[in-house]
Amino acid sequence: QAFPLPSLPRRQPTVLVACGPAQNGAIGLVCARHLRSFDYEPTIFYPKRSPDPLHRDFTTQCEKMDIPFLSYLPTEVQLINDAYNAVVDAVLGAEAEVAEGTEPCAAILATLKHVRIPIVSLDVPSGWAAEAGGSGDISPDVLVSLAAPKEVARRFQGRRHFLAGRFVPEELQRKFGISPRQYPGSDCVVAL
């Protein structure tokens, strides 16, 4: 639902997935794998690969699915706008406050803030303070909150907000006061 195939105007639904080195980057790798399974043409930019075994496994899975990896991100934004229909922002997540000013994350965010194609941010838009403060430099069109919307979602001004994560156990829902969402049928994503 967050990537409706008919809404992409070009013949091939190409998506650039920008991944950071931490947890959100791993989620981006999983996203790219799912996009490929649903007939998208993802390309991954993952400049600082995590040594974590799970991240390495996700990388290997993407490689085995013939998902290309870019060796560099073009700084000429028009090249990105022309080559892709959307960008998935999986650079920084809720845990990444310190990393946003460091490379390669800072350079990625500097480029993403100028793209004109839709940006889909996973969990927390990169560069935004997760709990308090103002929004960052990028302005995503779509936000896909994972498990539950974070406080930062209150500042989201994009077109669509989705919740992904039908997997939150009832005990955690009670503990953190998360209202259960009604997911249609067997869907794992619901529009908010």
UniProtKB/TrEMBL annotation:
Transmembrane segments: none annotated. InterPro entries: YjeF_N_dom (IPR004443), YjeF_N_dom_sf (IPR036652), YJEFN_prot_NAXE-like (IPR032976). GO terms for molecular function: NAD(P)HX epimerase activity. Gene3D superfamilies: YjeF N-terminal domain. Residues 1-180 form the YjeF N-terminal domain. It comes from the Eukaryota. GO terms for cellular component: mitochondrion. Signal peptide: none annotated. PROSITE patterns: YJEF_N (PS51385). PANTHER family: NAD(P)H-HYDRATE EPIMERASE, YJEF N-TERMINAL DOMAIN-CONTAINING PROTEIN 3. This is ApoA-I-binding protein 2.
